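ok so for the tutorial part 2 we go from a plain amino acid sequence to predicted structure tokens. step 1 is just haveing the sequence, like this:
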Amino acid sequence: MARNVATYSIAACDLDAGQWGVATQSKFLAVGSVVPWAEPKAGAIATQAYANPRYGSQGLAMLRDGLSAEEVVERLTAADEGRAQRQLGVVDREGRGATFTGDECLEWAGGRTGPCYAAQGNILVSAATVDAIAETFESSKGALAERLLDCLDAAQAAGGDRRGQQSAALLVVEENGGYAQLSDTVVELRVEDHERPLEELRRVYRIHEALFGETPRDEWLTVDDALANELRERLAKLGYDGELEDAFNQWAGNVNLEERVDGVAEIDPIVLDELRELS
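step 2 — the prediction. this is what the tokens look like for a chain of 279 residues:
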């Protein structure tokens, strides 16, 4: 028997950044394993209510072939005998949004679309939850991941899922925008079971950004003689001796900060703060 992924979500994109993503929260275990789907230069999909996970893989294939968000929604739901219990949000490669709510989805259920987003939810306290998602996305600027997190927070503040909270997820993709520029996954974080999943998702996102985020190069610090001596002393306290660059690289790798390191002529201030805190 299908399980009702009663939730709210937003599928969205930032065309200038070349990013697509989905954020979602639900009174449902591990919502991130079902709802969010995205592919660079194709689009993003959220599938929920009595969710049909095949909407994700099949929908991305259609988006990859150049179909619009509206066409994808029409084709997926037309071929599905269970469409009356489905909910779906799609954003395509051009930022067009489409949303679908079957007439048997549990109240309150519905969606809104606008430039570069589709917002939807079911078993919600009221329409205010989806309105909050849409209004927050439309008025926000900055990194797509942070805008999506802000949308979830606004949705929860407006009422959220009327059954409560349990899990949340964030997915953002960009061609070669992930780890070591060899992955398309910029961020993929899940909170599977938590009393306050949005707070936990935000906490984990901050860790992700500390490890894998990028500080503008003009904000890096020049490693002069005084700072080089400080680095040697602090690394030695932690058991890293030898040539400065070798010791520094070994330490950075061990604490998973290697993505923020590029030699020792300059240092990312985030990395320096972490070294100072640990030593």
